[in-house]
């Protein structure tokens, strides 16, 4: 979806995964167009009136109205007029809860500030790895044969993550920022097509058969219940070690630049107390290492994303820590 200009699906609704992600990415999205028929093998789309669109044909999606239009429609840039701002001011007068934004990039954070959000409620760190220069390093980490090779790849990702967080902290200027540690299963970072796997094998200088075998082994039957979230953090703890080191180093640097922040770190997909204990122990150890190395102190908060496995945060009895308990969308 990061490469798409818009999304059109035969099935689904407003709360389907495609629709949620598309809204977060700012992509026009029309889901549940059941009167259309997509034949991916033949690369054609048949409309309800019988018209056939093939690969390369132009269509325009209006996500607001839920319409798919043939050809390239004339476009107008979106604008925030006085009526919209007046509506928001009325909402501010009546609401009794704080409003934060989902923001995974500096551009998202700038938009959040423009809409006067009171912080970032969810920063999905995995979305930071889809840029081309980072994706290849991420794939090198996934295919690492040894812990040493994996550490080398993560060391290359560390300054990238640190810079990401520094930009977010600088833009938010002391407002709270909730950062969710790496959540999705690893196969989401691998190509799905045979041609894509062949290109990856060439980039990694590995036999195609090995790349295909590893990709198949990582593919989840039910990604929502498989090796992802905190379970991945327990099995491959060095991923979370790298991320929290980047967060803490960015916290110190932001404070030096006049934008102090107390980062909120979310442990994803938690279903048991022991999972939190294992991850918290390593986070605290990394925090101690960064404090000692920098000769400076900082604060941070830890929270969990209980999701549907725990139903509510109260079901996971947290170890002693400075907690917050976000209600995060499973995206």
What is the CATH class name of the largest domain?
A: Alpha Beta
Coarse shape: globular
- How many domains comprise the coordinates? 2
Order of helices and strands: EHEEEEEEHEHEHHEHHHHEHEHE
For the biggest β-sheet, the strand order reads 8-9-10-11-12-13
Rg, alpha carbons: 22 Å
Tally of helical segments: 11
Question: Percent range for helical residues?
Answer: 40-55%
Q: How many strands, what sense, and barrel or not for the largest sheet?
A: 6 strands, parallel
Oligomer: single chain
Uncertain stretches of 5 or more adjacent residues = 327-331
Residue share in β-strands: 5-15%
CATH superfamily of the largest domain: Phosphoenolpyruvate-binding domains
User: Termini, distance in Å?
Assistant: 13 Å
Round the mean pLDDT to the nearest integer and report it.
88
Q: What class do helices, strands and sheet pairing give?
A: alpha/beta
Provide the CATH topology of the largest domain. TIM Barrel
Number of strands: 13
Description:
β1, α1 (17-25) and β2 form a beta-alpha-beta unit. It contains eleven helices and 13 strands. It is globular, with a radius of gyration of 22 Å. The longest helix has 26 residues, at 147-172. It is of the alpha/beta class and 331 residues long. The strands form four sheets. The chain has a six-stranded parallel β-sheet. Strands 3-4-5 form a three-stranded antiparallel β-sheet, with no helix packed on it. α4 packs antiparallel against α5 (147-172) and α8 crosses α10. It has two domains: 7-70, Phosphohistidine domain (Glucose Oxidase, domain 1, 3-Layer(bba) Sandwich); 82-185 and 220-324, Phosphoenolpyruvate-binding domains (TIM Barrel). The chain starts with 6 loop residues before the first strand and ends in a 7-residue tail after the last strand. The chain has helices at 17-25, 82-94, 106-114, 132-142, 147-172, 194-204, 208-218, 229-235, 237-256, 273-294, 307-310, and strands spanning 7-8, 29-30, 37-39, 44-46, 52-54, 59-62, 67-70, 101-102, 120-124, 177-180, 264-267, 301-304, 323-324. The model is unreliable at 327-331 (pLDDT under 50).
